[in-house]
């Protein structure tokens, strides 16, 4: 048995385990085994009942808010298993700091990660936060809605229905992502030649609607990976790689990326014979 991201050994009871309680509560939960050395060998505790009280008091006095945990005696009452569940009231703090597990180590979260924990604790996503841009237009979104689902009327009520706007906070970040102009990074595409030292073409799409970024990126695909072949009287479009696969990769990159980091999605296009 060895330590993992969700399992830690403590031969004795010191305050260092409280950082791990914070980490487990903030993320995916885990277990701490007391009376076990770093190699997983059972050493035992001299007084497990008193040890349970010490662990409980330390957690109750030091972790805020109160985490969800359970204590069990194991190995013929020689060791204690502390099970900590992932909590809903994130962030869980020890000495005003939040922690996470990094492989088998427990480390303090950075400012960005702390902000994400706060939002998760409030059950709010980054996209729901108020957008710093409030002078927004949605011509591209309006065009796509009309083209795909035949929406003729587009006004503030439409934006409210789409959860992009409310009277109290104005436009949210989701609205900013769909707006014609915004402050968000987009996609950076590079087309290489025979090797990565040869850059044949580079194009960046940013500060525009993610819908526009998506369509512009697909247009680049046609330039990079499609060509035509004349067969008799017919002209046939050929693909060096399947467009459907490229389209799926770009869609997933845009949908699943985190927008609170100011960086581009990088697409590296290699030469294919």
Task: Report what the structure shows.
The chain has helices spanning 17-26, 48-62, 111-121, 139-149, 156-161, 173-178, 210-225, 243-256, and strands spanning 7-10, 30-34, 63-64, 69-74, 79-84, 93-94, 97-102, 105-108, 165-166, 170-171, 187-192, 199-205, 226-231, 234-239, 265-269. With 273 residues, the chain is of the alpha+beta class. It has three domains: 7-121, Schlafen, AAA domain (Methyltransferase, Cobalt-precorrin-4 Transmethylase, Domain 2, 2-Layer Sandwich), CATH 3.30.950; 139-178, no CATH class; 187-269, no CATH class. The protein has a four-stranded mixed β-sheet with strand order 1-2-5-4. A four-stranded antiparallel β-sheet has the order 3-6-7-8. A three-stranded mixed β-sheet has the order 12-11-15, covered by helices on one side. Helix 7 (210-225) runs antiparallel to helix 8 (243-256). It is elongated, with a radius of gyration of 27 Å. The model has no long low-confidence stretch (mean pLDDT 92).
